[in-house]
Design goal:
Elements (H helix, E strand, L loop, with lengths): L20 E3 L14 E7 L2 E3 L2 E2 L10 E4 L2 E11 L8 E5 L5 E6 L1 E2 L7 E6 L5 E7 L6 E20 L8 E9 L4 E5 L4 E3 L4 E9 L3 E12 H4 L2 E3 L4 E18 L11 E9 L3 E13 L8 E2 L5 H4 L11 E7 L9 E11 L2 E6 L4 E3 L7 E7 L14 E4 L15 E20 L8 E9 L7 E9 L4 H4 L1 E14 L3 E11 L8 E4 L1 E3 L6 E11 L2 E12 L11 E15 L4
Parallel strand pairs: 27-28
Antiparallel strand pairs: 1-3, 2-38, 4-38, 5-6, 6-30, 7-11, 7-21, 8-20, 9-10, 10-19, 11-19, 12-17, 12-20, 12-21, 13-16, 13-19, 14-17, 15-16, 18-19, 21-29, 22-29, 23-27, 23-30, 24-25, 24-26, 24-29, 31-37, 32-36, 32-38, 33-35, 33-37, 34-36
Length: about 575
């Protein structure tokens, strides 16, 4: 009887990686007298095994790369959030009344050459009011507002054209709201602390004159405005009027030769509402619409994805590059991160130790981060100066019963934390937070990590083998392993129906971490009949060193000596 060469795949149980073998057909049981029971005692079968190299098992792929002579799991991608936008705010204004006053003539002094006299002008204070409701909840306080603020003073001197060809408004002092940043002053000088605008002289030809002023910003603190966060409203009131001034009629412009005893003056104001274009103050904003694609791990090698495998990576790193679209407004952003590993229906989250902050002080608005359990000594060049962020649990994202099928990455509470901003635009798209990430994890197993490699070697069955009962199978070999793991190897026999043969005793072997030239023996005893193959399993357990796996590492198996004992018996 010549057993098939597949029978000796038992040698594969010596490694956690795939092996190739060949068997020499150098024995023959065909001359055994099958009418009697024939004992077989430690029959040795020669087997040749090729050297096993890790690089032949862990091959480079889209997710497995050899970098700096180390195996690394790598993944990269881009992401973005929904655009950041704080809703528009409209400021309403109360309509102001006009004032009609009669001004007596004051003759000029003798020294006032060329001046017949003047009329002193001032108006009672008129209260303006700006207000807004429905202010977005993201605005927590207001220090200043931006917008197109316009103010118009209109003067109507009824009947003056019958008295003089022109008049001069001199030394006008107008009361405007305080704290404005005026961009149009109609020739006047504005004091933001008092709100007073002074105009030395304005000539009126005809009966009506209009003075226009425009501001693009107002300081809430100086303006005396009130903001109520609970009701999401704000309001501000103040005085507007002509505080003082003179209307002068030059002597050579008197049509009737003498100034009238009095003038009738109508003063009116236009202070319209306006939309806010920006604000300075407190803001708190939740960033939404984060779009990060899942990491698909289905393409990892089988040697890493066997059931029972439990991997804790040694200092994996996530490198992030992020922009801050609100940097021009002195805003910072903050976020946490959670990576969830998916094993079938089970999901296990792993989160950053603490959130990290995207600052506001880089000239290009780009910020880089390195998220890892320990700050790595070597980094990709583009992340050489990245800020380190502690992610203590990151090494466990691949742990569990076998590798996860995928990883999902989410940002935790990405937001603009409550802070002060300067001239932040309202009602417009401010841009999104976007960036890219690089996941790089050396396959350097942390202490206690396990890789389970299992396979079946079957198809050995034959008529002769069906008549053999094996009572003891020993597989002896010399194993050298420079992969930094300890190996526990075991196997069980499989019958012709594909079932495990249970009435046997299995004695596996343990190969110590980093051992050299160790003699091993897998021993299976019992009554093994109808043998069709074996199921073998090797559990690799990492020690404390955590050295990264390298393509130079290998397992050498030599001096392999399988022996079988038992008997061959065939009924007459």
């Amino acid at each position: 009887m010549t057993p098939r060469h597949n029978y000796f795949y038992l040698g594969l149980s010596l490694a956690c990686l795939a092996m190739s073998s060949c068997v020499d057909d150098n024995y023959d049981l065909s001359d055994i007298d099958t009418t009697v029971k024939v004992d077989i005692d430690h029959l040795t079968i020669p087997i040749n095994l090729d050297e096993i190299l890790l690089k032949n098992i862990l091959k480079e792929s889209d997710q497995i790369k050899i970098i700096d002579n180390q195996y690394m799991v790598t993944e990269d991608g881009t992401f973005n959030t929904a655009p950041i936008e704080i809703g528009a705010v409209n400021i309403s204004s109360r309509q102001l009344s006009s004032f009609e006053i009669t001004i007596p003539f004051v003759p000029a002094a003798v020294s006032a050459l060329g001046e017949a006299g003047h009329f002193e002008i001032s108006t009672p204070a008129q209260q303006f009011n700006f207000s807004a409701v429905g202010i977005p909840a993201e605005i927590t306080s207001v220090d200043a507002i931006g917008g197109d603020l316009s103010f118009e003073f209109m003067f109507d001197l009824q009947g003056i054209s019958a008295v003089a060809g022109k008049v001069e408004f001199c030394d006008l002092v107008l009361q405007l709201p305080k704290g404005l940043t005026l961009v149009e002053t109609d020739g006047g000088t504005y004091d933001a602390a008092t709100g007073e605008l002074s105009i030395a002289s304005k000539t009126l030809i005809g009966e009506r004159m209009s003075l226009n002023f425009r501001a693009n910003r107002a300081d809430f603190n100086v303006l005396g405005a009130d903001f109520d966060y609970d009701s999401h409203s704000m309001s501000v009131s103040g005085d507007i009027c002509v505080k003082s001034g003179r209307i002068v009629i030059p002597s050579d412009n008197l049509i009737a030769g003498a100034a009238p005893a009095n003038l009738k003056l109508v003063v009116s104001y236009a202070v319209p509402g306006f939309p806010l274009t920006s604000f300075s103050g407190g803001v708190k904003y939740d960033i939404s619409g984060v779009n990060i694609s899942d990491v698909d791990l289905s393409g990892l090698p089988d040697v890493l994805s066997q059931g029972g495998t439990d991997i804790s990576l040694d200092n994996p790193c996530i490198y992030l590059s992020l922009n801050n679209p609100l940097q021009p407004y002195k805003a910072i952003a903050r976020t946490g991160m959670t990576i969830t590993s998916h094993h079938g229906q089970n999901a296990e989250p792993y989160s950053l130790d603490n959130p990290f902050t995207i600052g506001n002080d880089h000239a290009d608005g780009i910020y880089t981060f390195c998220l890892s359990p320990v700050n790595p000594a070597n980094r990709p060049a583009e992340f050489a100066s990245a800020e380190h962020v502690a992610f203590s649990s990151l090494g466990r994202v691949l742990s569990g019963n076998g590798l996860p099928s995928s990883l999902s990455i989410s940002l935790d509470n990405p937001c603009l934390p409550d802070q002060k901003v300067i001239d932040l635009p309202l009602g417009v798209d401010l841009g999104a937070v976007s960036g890219n990430y690089l996941f790089r994890a050396p396959i350097a197993l942390a202490e206690g990590s396990t890789i389970v490699y299992a396979d079946d070697a079957t198809g050995w069955g034959s008529e002769d083998l069906d008549n053999m009962t094996i009572t003891e199978l020993n597989i002896l070999a010399t194993v050298e392993c420079d992969i930094p793991v300890a190996l526990d190897i075991t196997a069980y026999p499989i019958d012709a129906d594909g079932n495990q043969i249970n009435n046997v005793r299995i004695e596996g072997v343990h190969i110590a971490d980093g051992s050299q030239a160790q003699e091993v023996n897998i021993r299976i005893t019992g009554a093994i009949t109808r043998l069709d193959g074996i199921h073998y399993e090797a559990v690799a357990t990492a020690g404390a060193a955590g050295a990264a796996l390298s393509p130079d590492m290998n397992i050498r198996v030599s001096k392999l000596r399988p022996t079988v004992s038992g008997y061959y018996q065939k009924e007459l």
